C-alpha cells in the first residue's frame, strides 16, 4: 500500500567542518517566506589566524532544500551564514560579539531584536540591537568570503569565480544543482558583508551588566500618530530593564523607563508576552512571575514619571496614573517640558524673619533617575530666576534632595522650584514676615508684643515645671528599684 507521499531523509550541516559551524550556541530560528533563519554564536573561523574570538551569526536555508544528488546529498545545499554586527559606532567601534537571545514580533516579520554581550574574558557589557530583514537579504546577496590558504587572510571572492545559478538561491529541486554550485557552497558558506544593525547604534547598552533574554511589544497611540517599541530585557542578576524606543524627526531615540526586581541573583531564563492577558511572564530556575504591562497606578505616584510610560497617562483631575486613553496627559518623548506643572505640589509658606525653613518634595525618586541632577531655582524680585548653589551658611541639600534655607531674610522671599532633569517636581512660595523685626510705632503694637512675650514666658514656665516634676518621679523610681542586697559604700564601725 502506498500513501503517495514522498519521504525525505533529514538534512544537516557538514559534520566536523569549522567553515560551516564551529562550537555553535543557537539562540533562535524563524520561518520567513521561502527560508528558515537561524541565529547563533560560534568561534569565528575568519579570525582564527589572529587568535580566538566568538562572533554572532545569522544563517539561512531554503525550505525546499533536499540536499544535492551526489555532493552534499546528506547535507544542506543552500546553507549560507553571515556575521551579525552589534556595536557602538566610532572611529574604533566597540563590539558586542556574543548574541544571547533573539525576538521577532508575531505581527512584524521584517524586524529582529537581539541581546548581545561582550566576551566574559574582558570588559563586561551588554547591548540590544535591532535588525531589518532587508539588511539580512543584502548580506546574503553580496560577496562571499574565502581563505586561499591556511596562512592567508580572508578576502571577498571575485564575481568571476561564482558559479550559476548563484549559490544559496532557492530552486524547486536542489538535487538538480550543478556540482560546481554544490562544491562552491561546500567551501564558501560564509558571506563577506556583515549584517549591520539599525540606526547606527544599539537601542540600549550598559557596562557591568549581562543581558540574557528579551521580548518586545509595540504600542500605537492613534490620536498622537505615534508608535513606540517597548523592550523588556532580562539579566543574569534577576532584573528586568524596561526600555522605550521611538522616532523623532527620523532619528531613533530610546531611554530606560524602569527596572523590575524579579529574583535577586537568579538569571532570567525565559520571558514570554501574552497580549490576551496584557502580561509579561518571567521565569528563573526557581520561580515564575507575572507582570502587568500597564502597571500605571501601582508603579507611578507622580505625573512626571507616569507621562513617560507609553502604556500610561496622567489624570490631572484625580491626580492618578491610569492606562492611557484620549484625554490623559502623556509625553514619552519629553517634548512638553511643563506638561506636569499643573499637577505638581505647590505650597505657600509664611516664614518669620531669621527662621530656617525646610523645603521638601516628598517624591520618591526611583533608581533609574538617581543619577539625574536635582536642581533648585529661586524666583526673587531682585535677582529674577537663578539656580541655587549649595553652601553650609545659607543653602543646604538634604539626603532626600530637599532644600534648607538658613536664617531667612526679606531677600529670600519668592518662589522656589525643584527640577529633576527638565521636570518640575514641586514648588514653594515663601513669604517672609518681617513685622516683628521692626520697631513698634503704636501703643497697641507695644501691648500686643508684650502680651505675646508674656504668653511665651508662661509656656516656658509650664514646661519647666513639667520637667521638674518628671525628674523627681524618675529619681524616686530609681531609688525604689534598688535591691535590698545591694552593697553601698559606707564607713565601717570601729
Automatic annotation (TrEMBL):
Ig-like domain segment(s): 326-418
A GO biological process held by the record: positive regulation of cell migration
Domain of life: Eukaryota
Family, similarity comment: Belongs to the semaphorin family.
A Pfam family the protein falls into: Sema
Sema domain sequence ranges: 1-293
GO CC entries: extracellular region; plasma membrane
CDD domains in alphabetical order: Ig_Semaphorin_C (cd04979)
Record-linked SUPFAM superfamilies: Immunoglobulin, Plexin repeat, Sema domain
Organism expressing this protein natively: Anopheles funestus
Keywords: Developmental protein, Differentiation, Disulfide bond, Glycoprotein, Immunoglobulin domain, Neurogenesis, Secreted, Signal
Alphabetized InterPro entries for the sequence: Ig-like_dom, Ig-like_dom_sf, Ig-like_fold, Ig_sub, Semap_dom, Semap_dom_sf, Semaphorin, WD40/YVTN_repeat-like_dom_sf
Keyword presence, Lipid metabolism: no
Full protein name: Semaphorin-2A
Signal peptide as annotated in the record: none
Major location category of this protein: secreted
Record flagged with keyword Signal: yes
GO molecular function: chemorepellent activity; semaphorin receptor binding
